[in-house]
Amino acid sequence: MKRINIKCLYCNSKAFLRPASAVHGQEYRQPGEEVYVCARYPACDSYVSVHRRTHLPMGTLANRPLRIKHMEAHEAFNRLWKSGMMSRTAAYHWLQVQMGLPPEEAHIAKFSEWRCEQVIQLCSQFLAPNTCAA
């Protein structure tokens, strides 16, 4: 497995691969789950989950405010495809086109707070006319 170097966007420290329980506590019972954690954690509260097979990060290191914004953007996006108006794949393609991003960059886990806010607004605008029908 190729070793990758990840730097923290907040403090410029290295990030290291650790069990997810390092940030979620020992009660976290997801065997095999790992995260890249900033070397200054918990003083610098940034980490990112990794893909189980590849150990590649799912996005960028994120502090608590950005992690919250990612969750809000995912909630808005999930409402879009769970409405049944389009498949999940079609929704990601729609989002990619709306934001003018190449496919490899159209992942919420890679977005800044500003881009997450764009996702929330785009999804809300798309669903607004469709949820007011009565």
How would you sum up this structure in a few lines?
40% of the residues lie in helices and 12% in strands. With 134 residues, the protein is an alpha+beta fold.
Q: Unreliable segments (pLDDT under 50, ≥5 consecutive)?
A: none
Helix content range of the residues, please?
40-55%
Shape: elongated
What is the straight-line distance between the termini? Answer: 55 Å
Mean pLDDT comes to: 90
**Beta-strand segment tally:** 4
Query: Over all CA atoms, what is the radius of gyration?
Result: 17 Å
Oligomer: single chain
- What's the arrangement of strands in the largest beta sheet? 1-2-3-4
- Would you tell me the structural class of the helices and strands? alpha+beta
- The number of helical elements comes to 4
Share in β-strands:
5-15%
**Main sheet summary:** 4 strands, antiparallel
Order of helices and strands: EEHEEHHH
